[in-house]
Amino acid sequence: MIARIRGTVAEVRATSVYLDLGDLTYEVFVPAVSLPELHTRIGQRVTLHTIEYIEGNTSFGNLASRLVGFLNEAERDFFVRFITVPGIGVNKGLKAMTMPMADIAGAIEARNVALLAQLPGIGKRTAEKAIAELNGKLKTFGVGAAAAPLPVAGQGVQAEVLGALMALGYRRGEAEDLIGRTLAAGAKGESVEQLLQECFRHAAP
Fold first, then answer.
1. What is the mean pLDDT of each run of 10 residues along the chain (205 residues)?
2. What are the structural domains of the chain?
């Protein structure tokens, strides 16, 4: 099994990244939350922590090996547990991870069905299944403050602003720090546009 892969980011697509490894280029599927960061790393070398899975139908014999990659081991380990929930397979799990791992784990630990149901492809019923299957098993995934969830609207707005800032070239830590400082200064952030504008004002020298 391929546990890690290191290469130069050649291209970032809608659901995957192309890594150049000398004469070989690998396509690695990645969670949605990682795409903005990887866009900023085009031309740079990165290490992805990976799992392999077989996609296809054995009845027709068209099986293909796929690689799924994560920016750190914790995300990979969380994903392996996340896709054990009935109704969440590899493809749906990747699309659903539009928020940082800690936020999703925190929502499960806090039994926040409303927040989980907002994840693409999840819905209320699958959110309830995720809580039933995983609640109490995710405390090691850095949930911290995420275990006490923010209002649903606030979580969604902050996640979208985080993605927008990273797409503009901010590192994840820098973007999270800027959002935190902006909110701490009294910004309401009731919409993505409003919070983004307020972040830009706080970022200005």
1. 90 93 94 88 93 74 83 92 93 91 89 90 94 90 44 59 78 77 73 81 71
2. 1-71 (2.40.50.140), 84-147 (1.10.150), 152-203 (1.10.8)
Which pTM does this prediction carry?
0.67
Q: Are 72 and 49 in contact (CB under 8 A)?
A: yes
Neighbour tally for 64: CB within 10 Å = 8
Tally the residues of the chain: 205
Closest CA to 143 of 181, 115, 178, 182: 115
Q: How far apart are the first and last CA of the chain?
A: 48
Three-state secondary-structure class, residue 9: strand
Residue 8 tokens, joined: 């130069």
